[in-house]
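User: Can you model how pyridoxal-5'-phosphate sits in this protein?
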Amino acid sequence: MLKRTVRKYSTKLLPLYGRPANVFTHGQGCYLVDKNEKKFLDFTAGIAVNALGHGDLQIAEIIHDQAKKLIHLSNLYHNEYAEGLAEMMVDSLQGTSLNDSQVFFCNSGTEANEGAFKFARKYARTVYPNEPTRFKIVSFKNAFHGRTLAALSATPNKKYQTPFFPLMQGFYTLDFNNVDSLSEIDKDVCAVIVEPIQGEGGINIATDEFMTALRERCDETGALLIFDEIQCGMGRTGKLFGFQNYNVEPDLLTMAKPMANGLPLGAVVVGNRVAKTISPGDHGTTFGGSPLATRVGQHVWKRISDPNFLSNVSKIGEFLYQECANLAKVSPLIQSVRGKGLMVGFTLRENVPTSMFVDLCLERGVLVVSAGNNTIRLVPPLIMTEEEIKKGIVVFERVLTIMEGRIASGKK
Ligand SMILES: Cc1ncc(COP(=O)(O)O)c(C=O)c1O
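Assistant: Here's the modeled complex, given as structure tokens:
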């Protein structure tokens, strides 16, 4: 078994991650290459970030050209690329409740959610000035919204939260996909945040019924509805926005991971009624929306929002799902398969360690990442081909067989 170590390569990095010994130096398309020139087929895409794969020459050229001109400007001045990207994003939202929205750019998913919470609280303070207790924020079990204190307070995972108690006040958790629990959203709630498809939590797909009931309950009580599409947005499900898989629309939308294919860029899309309550100085960022990140962001947006690109994601995603469902038929170690587009997960049976699967795949040149509930998460670049998927599936099948043998003989 591979040894995961936090100290093998560098003792100067804070030991927050258990990493394998490989040191990756470059990549091309859906492959990463390590220092020993070993190639790895990448089903992680930097955790749903490198949507257009690695080493994309168009992106490299844009970065090169823009780096020569202007990398950073601060938000003290206009920057044509941030303005342009915001316009492209809002244009893509025509025909939805966010058709008249405005955009705040930041650098990460957790920052996008922090921004959304602040905007929601400002909205409540402004629109309900006589309701000082309307500041609660509701999230759902198995959600992941980030690591900064407010985002962490909305991420009900004991392992992540407990070392950092006390968390921020005013955060509450309800059951995901449980319509009955929604009656607990009351007039003290200023916002509810939900991932239409939970990523870190184990590829858990919200039901239509739940999303519809959630929107209705928010409308009844006056709570704002925030969709966290940091992992499931921007083409990952075969739709530009994850919520387009439902008949429900949000008041605020948070995005990040693939927006600049790996350069830090996040965004909060703020619906008009909320945007109207935000004034200069309410929030800010030094780096957010830099000319470099947003110019790349425009390029990525254009390519991913192309209907042909999106329909290919749906087609390839369906293929990946079917291949995993076929694996589940032959392997007793797989309990269930879930997914939409190129966001697919399979849950291993209880007591079957996902780390064994991840490590054995790595040894055989395939990168996968686990997620909550004993799940293997497949979030490859959105440009992955059927051929590449088939190569990965051959390895998965082999690894499952090896695991069966090891588990039967009591070796872990
Ligand atoms: C749904 C969701 N929200 C928020 C975050 C936090 O994003 P970041 O790691 O960029 O802060 C993540 C990261 O995995 C995520 O998947």
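A couple of observations from the model: Residues 47, 108-110, 113, 144-146, 195, 199-200, 228, 230-231, 256 surround pyridoxal-5'-phosphate (CB under 6 Å). The two ends are 8 Å apart (CA to CA).
User: Helpful, thanks.
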